[in-house]
Amino acid sequence: MNRHFYLDLAARGVRMPIGADLVLHEEPDPEAARRDGRSLGCVIERAAHRWNTPLAMPLMDLRLEKTDLLALASIPEHEAEAYQFSAPLDDRAMEALCDLSASSFCAGSVARDQAISHIASLPDLLPVGMVIGPFSLATRLVRDPITAVALAGMAGDEPQSPEIQLMLQCLRASEAAVLRSIRSQIKHGARAIVVCEPAACTAFFSPRQLKAGSTSFERFVMEPNLRLRAELEQANCDLIFHDCGELIDSMVADFAQRLHPVILSLGSSRKLWDDARLVPADVVLYGNLPSKSFYSDAAMPVETVVDLTRELIARMQACGHPHIVGSECDVLFVPEAQHAILAKVDAIVTCAPQAESPRLQSITRAAHP
Amino acid sequence: MAVSTELYEAILTGDARKAHAATQAAIDAGIGPMELISASMVPAMNEVGRLYEAEDYFVPELLLSGRAMKSAMELLRPLIAAAGLRLGNRIIIGTVKGDLHDIGKNIVASMLEGSGFEVIDLGADVAPEKFVAAVEEREPHVVCMSSLLTVTMPAMRTTIQALESAGLRHKVKVLIGGAPVTQQYADEIGADGYGDNASLAVSAVKNLCAVA
After folding, report:
1. Is the peptide bond preceding residue A288 cis, with omega within 30 degrees of 0?
2. Are B134 and B158 found together in one domain?
3. In what order do the strands lie in the sheet with A126-132?
4. A3-367 in CATH: which number?
5. Where are the domains of chain A?
């Protein structure tokens, strides 16, 4: 993996939100642009240039792999988002779902790939692909994934209960779907892939069970993602790992040390300056301003965003870990709150670190007594 | 003290099979359904809520306990209906229009049922008019709305407005919740309450029913 490129970006003080959705909604017809590769590519290009970053972060559309997977089970696109399996699948169904040679993709995936090709034709931008992670995809295929995983984590539960059996089947099928997507995006020029696993978190994996010795996190999250990492490494494609869910330290350590991505992107529940001790020095930390609250000026005024950005920059400088300032996740367009959100996104990028602030001085001094 | 300590323990530890067996044993021993609910199940779910607030239990434990509680209720509901009894205050719950996330909503529904409420679950992607129709037909005490995406949160405001237009707003309390939702947003759209997590949502519903 080309770590120096990302470490250099961090050293240069790049600040960038994951903001393609905001730029998409400046189009006269955002939904048409989403499904047209060239238009989508131009949106991603504009987003990268707007925030002055060489990383052309894609639109975070985590529905595509599910649509493509379910097409192999003859589920039409308009039913895919809500569709869930209700009982363990037979061998024939599993064979179809796990077919790595399947090559047809939905319109959204085709547009995604064409957008990557567009970015790849530009000299100043790095084309970045994106997939939903295999565990997170599996959770969207069943009605109650948390219970299934919790049952798998309980000592003494019958390993072949239908819920667990189905969940494991969905995980296998999901890994295949994600692999197909990754291969297609690499084929179209992606040089880095963001693997998004928002479900790999304490909402799905009980810290109590993990402390008691459950291996469910290893089985459901780490094993498939380690295989994806190996695939990316073989293709000389960089791994960016994103998980904005609530995490415990051991999860962060596993992502950072064992998946060893070039960038680890975490949600606002984590203090990145504390997490730095869990993360190897050659893994850039990304994020993690609380962009999910940006829609509300009452809950998150722009002044608070400025303060949080300055604190984050100061603390990360004090701890010395490579860091790119950004949002905790994709910053979604909300029609009622467009101006509020954009003001805060711009604040992240433009606010100057304020060394004179007493609060920041105390942070810097504490780190370097 | 729990009438059936086995049922209490089974719900607390999230063991659906043991909960089912303990319930059947209690029924066979002549213990009435309402007594089982109030003396064993509600205390168990209250303890589950307390352990969650103490960060000793997490979402998976909530769901396992809810599942155990439901397995007990499967045996009790026919008995309650046959005796013409009614569970506590009636709650309507759903995830708003455009949002398919339902796990949080399901946890709250389970915990409300475990706390002795009658819960009518409208599911996910529920249009304002469907909430209105349900309120008109079922006359709940509280309507709970869930949203997990900032882009679907406006549907909470739209639903409250729909209740106002239908002349039903004053007849029902409205509670909202979900990851991006805040107390400020609840105040802004005229909701009566807000639950920061499943356990607090249940407490909020109890408070709203107390003042209703």
Report:
1. yes
2. yes
3. A55-56, A126-132, A192-196, A238-243, A263-266, A284-289, A323-327
4. 3.20.20.210
5. 3-367
Residue B33: give the domain boundaries.
Answer: 5-82
Q: Which of A182, A168, A145 is nearest to A64 (CA)?
A: A182
**Residue B48 in contact with residue B103, Cβ under 8 Å?**
no
Residue B184 CB burial class (10 angstroms; 0-12, 13-18, ≥19): middle
- The answer to whether B104 touches B148, Cβ cutoff 8 Å, is yes
Same domain, B13 and B104: no
| Domain containing residue B127: CATH number | 3.40.50.280
- Chain A residues interacting with chain B (CB cutoff of 8 angstroms): 81-82, 144-147, 149-151, 153-154, 202-209, 292-293, 295-296, 298-299, 332-337
**What distance in Å separates residue B106's CA from the closest CA in chain A?**
9
Q: Which pLDDT score is estimated for A2?
A: 86
- Assembly ipTM: 0.83
Dist. CA A16–CA B163, nearest whole Å: 42
Q: Are residues B76 and B130 in the same domain?
A: no
Question: What digits encode the pLDDT tens for the residues B31-90?
Answer: 999 899 889 998 998 899 899 989 999 989 988 998 898 899 999 989 988 888 777 899
Cβ-defined contact of A295 to B150 (cutoff 8 Å): yes
pTM comes to: 0.87
A183 vs A101: CA distance, rounded Å: 11
Q: Is the pLDDT of residue B201 over 50?
A: yes
The number of beta carbons lying within 10 Å of the beta carbon of residue A156 is 5
Strand order in the sheet with B173-177: B118-121, B90-95, B142-146, B173-177, B193-195
Do residues A18 and A329 lie in contact, with contact meaning Cβ atoms separated by under 8 Å?
A: yes
Interface test with A, best of B151, B187, B188 (most A CBs within 10 A): B151
Please tell me the distance in Å from B182's CA to the nearest CA on chain A.
7
